[in-house]
Amino acid sequence: MSKAISPAFRPEVHGHRGCRGLLPENTLPAFLHALEQGVDVLELDVVISADNQVVVSHEPWLNPTICLGPAGERIPAEKPPRFNLYHMPYHSIRECDCGVLQHPDFPEQVSQPAFKPLLSEVLATVEAATRQLGRMPVKYSIEIKSSPADDGLFHPVPAEFLRLVLTEISSVGVLARAQLLCFDARILRLAHAQIPDLATCFLIEDELPWSQHLDQLGFVPTTLGPAFQSVTLAAVQQLRAAYPTLKLVPWTVNLPQDMRRLIALRVDGITTDYPNRLIAVLGE
Protein backbone atom coordinates (compact mmCIF):
# COMPACT_ATOMS: atom_id res chain seq x y z
CA MET A 1 0.00 0.00 0.00
CA SER A 2 1.17 3.56 -0.56
CA LYS A 3 2.14 5.69 2.40
CA ALA A 4 -0.71 7.48 4.11
CA ILE A 5 -0.65 11.27 4.04
CA SER A 6 -2.79 13.61 6.11
CA PRO A 7 -6.11 14.43 4.42
CA ALA A 8 -5.69 18.10 5.40
CA PHE A 9 -4.72 20.60 2.69
CA ARG A 10 -1.61 19.53 0.91
CA PRO A 11 -0.25 19.91 -2.62
CA GLU A 12 -0.22 16.96 -4.97
CA VAL A 13 3.06 15.08 -5.22
CA HIS A 14 4.24 15.03 -8.82
CA GLY A 15 7.07 12.57 -9.47
CA HIS A 16 9.36 14.27 -12.02
CA ARG A 17 10.34 11.80 -14.74
CA GLY A 18 9.21 9.20 -12.24
CA CYS A 19 11.72 9.85 -9.47
CA ARG A 20 14.87 11.05 -11.23
CA GLY A 21 16.74 11.62 -8.00
CA LEU A 22 16.37 7.96 -7.04
CA LEU A 23 16.28 5.90 -10.26
CA PRO A 24 17.07 6.53 -13.96
CA GLU A 25 14.68 9.08 -15.38
CA ASN A 26 11.68 8.24 -17.54
CA THR A 27 12.15 4.49 -17.14
CA LEU A 28 9.76 1.80 -15.99
CA PRO A 29 11.70 1.21 -12.72
CA ALA A 30 11.48 4.94 -11.90
CA PHE A 31 7.74 5.12 -12.51
CA LEU A 32 7.04 1.97 -10.50
CA HIS A 33 9.19 3.16 -7.59
CA ALA A 34 7.46 6.55 -7.58
CA LEU A 35 4.14 4.74 -7.53
CA GLU A 36 5.27 2.73 -4.50
CA GLN A 37 6.48 5.92 -2.79
CA GLY A 38 2.92 7.28 -2.96
CA VAL A 39 2.95 9.96 -5.66
CA ASP A 40 -0.33 11.44 -6.81
CA VAL A 41 0.89 12.27 -10.31
CA LEU A 42 3.55 10.79 -12.58
CA GLU A 43 5.27 13.39 -14.76
CA LEU A 44 6.94 12.20 -17.96
CA ASP A 45 8.08 13.45 -21.36
CA VAL A 46 7.31 12.13 -24.83
CA VAL A 47 8.99 12.29 -28.22
CA ILE A 48 8.32 10.56 -31.56
CA SER A 49 10.42 7.88 -33.26
CA ALA A 50 11.00 7.46 -37.00
CA ASP A 51 8.19 4.89 -37.14
CA ASN A 52 5.73 7.19 -35.32
CA GLN A 53 5.95 5.50 -31.94
CA VAL A 54 5.38 7.69 -28.86
CA VAL A 55 8.56 7.23 -26.81
CA VAL A 56 9.06 8.36 -23.22
CA SER A 57 12.18 10.54 -23.28
CA HIS A 58 13.10 14.05 -22.20
CA GLU A 59 15.33 14.76 -25.18
CA PRO A 60 14.49 13.81 -28.77
CA TRP A 61 18.00 12.38 -28.99
CA LEU A 62 20.20 10.10 -26.94
CA ASN A 63 21.58 12.18 -24.07
CA PRO A 64 25.29 11.29 -23.82
CA THR A 65 25.23 11.96 -20.07
CA ILE A 66 22.84 9.11 -19.34
CA CYS A 67 22.60 6.95 -22.48
CA LEU A 68 24.78 4.50 -24.36
CA GLY A 69 24.54 3.98 -28.10
CA PRO A 70 22.93 0.96 -29.81
CA ALA A 71 26.18 -1.02 -29.61
CA GLY A 72 26.74 -0.12 -25.94
CA GLU A 73 29.22 2.62 -26.83
CA ARG A 74 29.69 5.94 -25.05
CA ILE A 75 28.23 8.82 -27.03
CA PRO A 76 30.31 11.96 -27.60
CA ALA A 77 28.66 15.29 -26.84
CA GLU A 78 28.14 16.75 -30.31
CA LYS A 79 25.96 19.28 -32.07
CA PRO A 80 23.81 18.24 -33.78
CA PRO A 81 23.35 15.20 -31.54
CA ARG A 82 24.58 11.95 -33.07
CA PHE A 83 21.39 9.96 -32.37
CA ASN A 84 18.21 11.84 -33.30
CA LEU A 85 15.31 9.69 -32.03
CA TYR A 86 13.00 11.13 -34.69
CA HIS A 87 15.26 9.48 -37.26
CA MET A 88 15.52 6.14 -35.43
CA PRO A 89 12.97 3.29 -35.49
CA TYR A 90 11.81 2.32 -32.04
CA HIS A 91 13.43 -1.14 -32.11
CA SER A 92 16.81 0.63 -32.40
CA ILE A 93 15.97 3.11 -29.63
CA ARG A 94 15.02 0.27 -27.30
CA GLU A 95 18.47 -1.29 -27.71
CA CYS A 96 20.10 1.77 -26.14
CA ASP A 97 20.73 1.62 -22.40
CA CYS A 98 19.72 4.82 -20.58
CA GLY A 99 20.00 3.63 -17.00
CA VAL A 100 23.39 2.11 -16.33
CA LEU A 101 25.18 5.49 -16.32
CA GLN A 102 24.44 7.33 -13.08
CA HIS A 103 23.38 10.93 -13.65
CA PRO A 104 26.18 13.08 -12.17
CA ASP A 105 23.69 15.58 -10.73
CA PHE A 106 21.90 12.93 -8.66
CA PRO A 107 24.30 11.07 -6.36
CA GLU A 108 21.47 9.12 -4.70
CA GLN A 109 20.31 7.72 -8.02
CA VAL A 110 20.70 3.93 -8.20
CA SER A 111 21.82 3.12 -11.73
CA GLN A 112 20.58 -0.01 -13.45
CA PRO A 113 20.10 -1.19 -17.04
CA ALA A 114 17.01 0.47 -18.49
CA PHE A 115 15.56 1.42 -21.87
CA LYS A 116 13.32 4.20 -23.15
CA PRO A 117 9.79 2.73 -22.98
CA LEU A 118 6.78 3.49 -25.11
CA LEU A 119 4.10 5.72 -23.61
CA SER A 120 1.53 2.95 -24.00
CA GLU A 121 3.85 0.57 -22.14
CA VAL A 122 4.32 2.97 -19.23
CA LEU A 123 0.60 3.60 -18.89
CA ALA A 124 -0.35 -0.08 -19.05
CA THR A 125 2.42 -1.09 -16.63
CA VAL A 126 1.55 1.59 -14.08
CA GLU A 127 -2.18 0.85 -14.27
CA ALA A 128 -1.51 -2.84 -13.60
CA ALA A 129 0.87 -2.05 -10.73
CA THR A 130 -1.67 0.35 -9.20
CA ARG A 131 -4.25 -2.41 -9.04
CA GLN A 132 -1.71 -4.80 -7.57
CA LEU A 133 -0.75 -2.30 -4.87
CA GLY A 134 -4.41 -1.67 -4.05
CA ARG A 135 -3.92 2.07 -4.09
CA MET A 136 -5.85 4.92 -5.70
CA PRO A 137 -5.13 5.46 -9.41
CA VAL A 138 -2.54 8.08 -10.26
CA LYS A 139 -2.81 10.95 -12.67
CA TYR A 140 -0.42 11.43 -15.57
CA SER A 141 1.28 14.70 -16.54
CA ILE A 142 2.60 14.12 -20.04
CA GLU A 143 4.91 16.76 -21.46
CA ILE A 144 5.04 17.02 -25.24
CA LYS A 145 8.56 18.10 -26.14
CA SER A 146 7.82 20.50 -28.97
CA SER A 147 9.22 23.79 -30.24
CA PRO A 148 8.68 25.70 -33.51
CA ALA A 149 12.37 25.51 -34.41
CA ASP A 150 12.34 21.71 -34.22
CA ASP A 151 9.28 21.00 -36.41
CA GLY A 152 10.28 18.35 -38.93
CA LEU A 153 13.76 18.08 -37.45
CA PHE A 154 13.24 16.47 -34.02
CA HIS A 155 9.47 15.96 -34.05
CA PRO A 156 6.37 16.17 -36.25
CA VAL A 157 4.36 19.35 -36.71
CA PRO A 158 2.03 20.07 -33.75
CA ALA A 159 -1.17 18.57 -35.17
CA GLU A 160 0.47 15.23 -35.94
CA PHE A 161 2.46 15.18 -32.69
CA LEU A 162 -0.71 15.80 -30.69
CA ARG A 163 -2.70 13.19 -32.65
CA LEU A 164 -0.13 10.48 -31.96
CA VAL A 165 -0.01 11.25 -28.23
CA LEU A 166 -3.77 11.50 -27.74
CA THR A 167 -4.28 8.22 -29.57
CA GLU A 168 -1.98 6.42 -27.12
CA ILE A 169 -3.55 8.00 -24.04
CA SER A 170 -7.06 7.20 -25.23
CA SER A 171 -6.22 3.61 -26.15
CA VAL A 172 -5.20 2.85 -22.55
CA GLY A 173 -8.31 4.57 -21.20
CA VAL A 174 -6.67 7.18 -18.98
CA LEU A 175 -7.60 10.37 -20.83
CA ALA A 176 -9.69 11.58 -17.87
CA ARG A 177 -6.62 11.31 -15.60
CA ALA A 178 -4.13 12.75 -18.06
CA GLN A 179 -2.87 16.30 -18.40
CA LEU A 180 -0.84 17.59 -21.33
CA LEU A 181 2.10 19.82 -20.46
CA CYS A 182 4.00 21.96 -22.93
CA PHE A 183 6.16 25.06 -23.26
CA ASP A 184 4.86 25.32 -26.84
CA ALA A 185 1.57 27.23 -26.83
CA ARG A 186 0.68 25.80 -30.27
CA ILE A 187 0.24 22.31 -28.82
CA LEU A 188 -1.96 23.51 -25.98
CA ARG A 189 -4.18 25.62 -28.23
CA LEU A 190 -4.74 22.65 -30.54
CA ALA A 191 -5.49 20.33 -27.62
CA HIS A 192 -7.95 22.78 -26.10
CA ALA A 193 -9.71 23.29 -29.44
CA GLN A 194 -10.05 19.56 -30.04
CA ILE A 195 -10.93 18.46 -26.49
CA PRO A 196 -12.00 21.48 -24.38
CA ASP A 197 -12.29 19.35 -21.23
CA LEU A 198 -8.77 17.93 -21.52
CA ALA A 199 -6.50 19.07 -18.70
CA THR A 200 -3.64 21.24 -19.93
CA CYS A 201 -0.62 22.81 -18.24
CA PHE A 202 1.30 25.76 -19.66
CA LEU A 203 4.95 25.49 -18.69
CA ILE A 204 7.06 28.63 -18.34
CA GLU A 205 10.63 29.23 -17.28
CA ASP A 206 11.42 32.90 -17.99
CA GLU A 207 10.98 35.97 -15.82
CA LEU A 208 8.01 37.47 -17.68
CA PRO A 209 4.83 38.01 -15.62
CA TRP A 210 2.64 34.92 -15.57
CA SER A 211 -0.35 36.95 -16.78
CA GLN A 212 1.54 37.93 -19.92
CA HIS A 213 2.07 34.27 -20.80
CA LEU A 214 -1.58 33.45 -20.17
CA ASP A 215 -2.74 36.37 -22.31
CA GLN A 216 -0.57 35.12 -25.18
CA LEU A 217 -1.92 31.58 -24.78
CA GLY A 218 -5.44 32.79 -25.49
CA PHE A 219 -7.34 30.57 -23.05
CA VAL A 220 -7.12 29.62 -19.40
CA PRO A 221 -5.47 26.20 -19.02
CA THR A 222 -6.08 23.86 -16.13
CA THR A 223 -2.66 24.45 -14.64
CA LEU A 224 0.25 26.85 -14.76
CA GLY A 225 3.67 25.26 -14.36
CA PRO A 226 6.36 27.87 -13.64
CA ALA A 227 9.94 27.32 -12.55
CA PHE A 228 9.70 27.28 -8.76
CA GLN A 229 12.16 30.16 -8.29
CA SER A 230 9.57 32.55 -9.74
CA VAL A 231 6.88 31.59 -7.21
CA THR A 232 6.53 34.44 -4.70
CA LEU A 233 3.72 35.47 -2.38
CA ALA A 234 2.91 38.47 -4.58
CA ALA A 235 2.85 36.37 -7.76
CA VAL A 236 0.59 33.77 -6.15
CA GLN A 237 -1.81 36.41 -4.80
CA GLN A 238 -2.05 38.08 -8.21
CA LEU A 239 -2.66 34.76 -9.94
CA ARG A 240 -5.37 33.70 -7.47
CA ALA A 241 -7.16 37.04 -7.87
CA ALA A 242 -7.07 37.01 -11.67
CA TYR A 243 -7.53 33.28 -12.28
CA PRO A 244 -9.25 31.72 -9.25
CA THR A 245 -9.71 28.30 -10.90
CA LEU A 246 -6.18 27.97 -12.25
CA LYS A 247 -3.99 25.41 -10.48
CA LEU A 248 -0.35 26.21 -9.72
CA VAL A 249 2.22 23.40 -9.92
CA PRO A 250 5.83 24.67 -9.89
CA TRP A 251 8.86 22.62 -10.96
CA THR A 252 11.41 21.15 -10.13
CA VAL A 253 11.61 21.36 -6.32
CA ASN A 254 14.19 19.14 -4.65
CA LEU A 255 15.23 20.78 -1.37
CA PRO A 256 13.02 20.46 1.74
CA GLN A 257 13.29 24.17 2.57
CA ASP A 258 11.92 25.08 -0.87
CA MET A 259 9.15 22.52 -0.50
CA ARG A 260 8.12 24.02 2.84
CA ARG A 261 8.07 27.54 1.38
CA LEU A 262 5.82 26.48 -1.48
CA ILE A 263 3.51 24.51 0.79
CA ALA A 264 3.11 27.64 2.90
CA LEU A 265 2.09 29.50 -0.28
CA ARG A 266 -0.58 26.82 -0.83
CA VAL A 267 0.44 25.76 -4.30
CA ASP A 268 -1.71 22.99 -5.76
CA GLY A 269 1.11 20.61 -6.57
CA ILE A 270 4.88 20.29 -6.44
CA THR A 271 6.97 18.58 -9.09
CA THR A 272 10.09 16.95 -7.64
CA ASP A 273 12.86 14.52 -8.50
CA TYR A 274 12.61 13.28 -4.91
CA PRO A 275 9.00 12.39 -4.10
CA ASN A 276 10.26 10.63 -0.97
CA ARG A 277 11.55 13.96 0.37
CA LEU A 278 8.31 15.78 -0.38
CA ILE A 279 6.21 13.06 1.20
CA ALA A 280 8.43 13.23 4.30
CA VAL A 281 7.97 17.02 4.48
CA LEU A 282 4.21 16.65 4.12
CA GLY A 283 4.24 14.22 7.00
CA GLU A 284 6.02 16.61 9.37
Automatic annotation (TrEMBL):
Pfam families given in the database record: GDPD
Endpoints of the signal sequence: none
InterPro entries reported in the protein's UniProt record: GP_PDE_dom, PLC-like_Pdiesterase_TIM-brl
Start and end residues of each GP-PDE domain: 11-282
Protein name as it appears in the record: Glycerophosphodiester phosphodiesterase family protein
Organism of derivation: Hymenobacter antarcticus
